[in-house]
Automatic annotation (TrEMBL):
Domain spans labelled Diphthamide synthase: 16-224
Lineage: Bacteria, Pseudomonadati, Bacteroidota, Cytophagia, Cytophagales
Xref: CDD domains: AANH_PF0828-like
Name by which UniProt lists this protein: Diphthamide synthase domain-containing protein
InterPro entries with a match to the protein in the record: Diphthami_syn_dom (IPR002761), DPH6/MJ0570 (IPR030662), Rossmann-like_a/b/a_fold (IPR014729)
GO biological process assignments: protein histidyl modification to diphthamide
Top-level taxon: Bacteria
GO molecular function: diphthine-ammonia ligase activity
Length: 227
């Protein structure tokens, strides 16, 4: 069952990876008259990269500024992830006065169960605007909206084909040729949105290096700027 349409009284925190799914979920919530107040990202225990996509704090801060919202962080191991997540949700709810959480998951039930669990623990209602929609249709909707999603990490076997490229129709064909899920839902790749309808200004990536670790390759973005 899809989520009901938020009302004008719906204010929300968006669980923020910086990638295309959280971005599209965020934008859909905006289109349904929900009010965004803060973005929320979990970093690794060193605090230098996001747990989900391996994006640096500096780049996520720059991205949030391009969108025009504050972004909050916690640092956590996987072992303490849930406890720290709930504690931070409660703190941010008091600070920012929101009543909903928005997540970008599409069809993995265990993810939805967890998101509803942690939201309920903080007396919040979880919204999943993309839930149970066709993955390929969502990616083409993103393109139609003008969302520019840069592939910032992927399995090393795919790096020479997709890493550092912005998703477009040609890259979608490459995904299909390589038998990559078009949304990357099996962990084949992750993205960073550098421009789109929720941006007030584009995020410009000046330079990056490609690094690999344990079968995964990623862009180490050295610096970023924005107009």
């Amino acid at each position: 069952m899809k989520n009901t349409k938020p009302t004008h009284s719906c204010s929300f925190l968006c669980s923020w990876s910086g990638g295309k799914d959280s971005y599209l979920a965020f934008y859909r919530a905006l289109q349904r008259n929900a009010k965004p107040v803060v973005l929320f990202n979990v970093m690794n225990e060193l605090g230098d990269r996001s747990r989900s996509h391996g994006i640096s704090r500096e780049v996520l801060l720059a991205q949030a500024e391009c969108i025009g919202l504050p972004i909050e962080f916690i640092e956590s191991t996987w072992q303490d992830y849930e406890t720290n997540y709930i504690e931070k949700l409660k703190q941010l709810k008091t600070e920012y006065q929101f009543n909903h959480t928005v997540f970008g998951d599409i069809d993995i039930q265990s993810h939805r169960d967890w998101e509803e669990k942690v939201s309920e623990a903080a007396t919040l209602k979880a919204l999943l605007p993309l839930w149970q929609e066709d993955r390929e249709a969502l990616v083409f909707e993103m393109l139609k909206l003008g969302v520019k999603a840069l592939v910032v990490s992927c399995r090393t076997e795919f790096a020479s084909y997709i890493l550092g490229k912005v998703i477009d129709e040609e890259l979608i064909q490459v995904f299909q040729d390589l038998d990559i899920d078009v949304c990357g839902e099996n962990g084949e790749y992750h993205t960073l949105v550098i421009d789109g309808p929720a941006h007030k200004k584009p995020l410009l990536i000046d330079s990056f290096e490609i690094q690999s670790n344990k079968g995964y390759s990623f862009l180490d973005i050295r610096k970023s700027k924005w107009r």
